Amino acid sequence: MAVAVRPTTQRRPREAESQQPLLTLVPETGFTHWKIAVVAVCGLFAMLAIVTLNVAMAQQQMRLDRLNSDVYRARAHFEELRADRAQLQSLGHLMKEARAIGLVPAMATKTVNIPASIAAEVAATVGKIDADMTTHSESPLDKFGRLKAVVVGNP
């Protein structure tokens, strides 16, 4: 069973009432409107930053795609040039080009050794002797030959 009881109000003395400040209602300021406006502006700036970031990422991705296609085309062109070079360096092509400019295949060659005395006699009768025939300067290979002859027998 529930019982409702009305509290009794006690009267305060007038002195106590006069010391307590009187509370009055003040009309609400627009502070909550400013809060909403600041949150909305911050939200708009955040969305703008996200959109800007997405646009920058899309531009960079397009740039990367363009660079990748350029690299692919350059590699394909390199392979074409490589195949052309191989074809131009082939023996069949070189023979065909040589015939086109009037070259003929060489006959079998034979090397003949001329004795030094005959070479000197021919040089003397001509009247002009080359400087390399008259003077003999020692080359580093001559020094190496002499050193090798000495060292070969020794361990």
Please work out how many helical segments DSSP would assign. 6
What is the ordering of alpha helices and beta strands?
Answer: HHHHHH
Q: Uncertain runs with pLDDT below 50, 5 residues or more?
A: none
Largest sheet: none
Mean pLDDT: 82
Mind explaining what this structure looks like?
With 155 residues, this protein is mainly α. It has a domain at 35-98. The chain is built from six helices and no strands. The mean pLDDT is 82.
Compact summary:
The protein is an all-alpha fold.
Overview features:
155 residues; mainly alpha
Itemize the secondary structure elements and their pairings:
Elements: H1 14-19, H2 31-88, H3 91-100, H4 116-126, H5 131-134, H6 140-151
